[in-house]
Write a structure and sequence with these properties.
224 residues; mainly beta; eight-stranded antiparallel beta sheet; seven-stranded antiparallel beta sheet; 2 helices; 7% helix; 55% strand; repeat
């Protein structure tokens, strides 16, 4: 697949997203869209033309917001990946926060497990907010998982982030991508940061998707 030319990928993605949802087929609207908004690039769920459900927003200043949108407004617990000042590379600090009206309202007080917590189950140590056993929640163990969780594994629609270079938005089964989804791969090379989006279909026990399309993002996205 050839990447879309750098001078016009986002317009194409926006139009394609509105007419061609790419993930899920449950009773709930579990579809992942790629949409350019006035605040940045959004990948996630949409309902009736509004951001609605789980997703990730790549802000124009280089930060990421991960959480749940309700009729266009980012609300409730989520994560804020903050690009470090004067950094053109993949260096972030991350915060677990409560969003209100599309903005960070306050940080969530959270203590990581220590060696003294060995009597506590691994999963109990890493659930940041919500219901990580059978509901909507967010957990972190070096990898962020936000969305529909069963027994501390993504099961249904969600967002998965491994470090800063691999981000998956779509449907999961038993913690693994399953079905259609969007995979964002970010790598540093000698000339800067290369960013690409894969739209594909993940099969059980398959680490690489059946690639559908590939987009090369402009350098103005995900970078200060």
């Amino acid at each position: 697949m050839k990447p879309i030319p750098l001078n016009k990928p986002l317009l194409f993605m926006s139009l394609l997203a509105l007419c061609n949802p790419i993930a899920g087929n449950s009773e709930r609207d579990e579809k992942a869209y790629i949409v350019q908004t006035d605040r940045g690039l959004f990948i996630g769920q949409i309902d009736n033309g509004q951001l609605h459900g789980h997703g990730i927003l790549f802000l124009k200043n280089g930060d990421y917001f991960i959480g749940t949108w309700t009729r266009g407004s980012l609300e409730g617990p989520g994560a804020w990946y903050e690009r470090l000042p004067s950094s053109d590379s993949l260096h972030f600090s991350y915060h677990f926060v409560i969003f209100a009206n599309n903005r960070v309202s306050r940080k969530i007080e959270y203590e990581y497990c220590s060696l003294d917590d060995i009597q506590m189950a691994w999963s109990d140590c890493h659930c940041i907010a919500g219901n990580c056993i059978s509901g909507q929640g967010m957990q972190f163990n070096g990898m962020l998982q936000s969305g529909s969780l069963i027994n501390h594994r993504l099961h249904g629609f969600g967002v998965w982030i491994d470090g800063m270079s691999n981000i998956h938005v779509g449907t999961f089964k038993d913690g693994q991508p399953n079905g259609q989804g969007v995979f964002l791969h970010i790598v540093e090379n000698g000339s800067g940061i290369e960013k690409g989006i894969y739209r594909g279909i993940w099969r059980p026990n398959q680490t690489e998707p059946d690639q559908v399309e590939y987009y090369l993002l402009p350098l103005s996205i995900l970078r200060r």
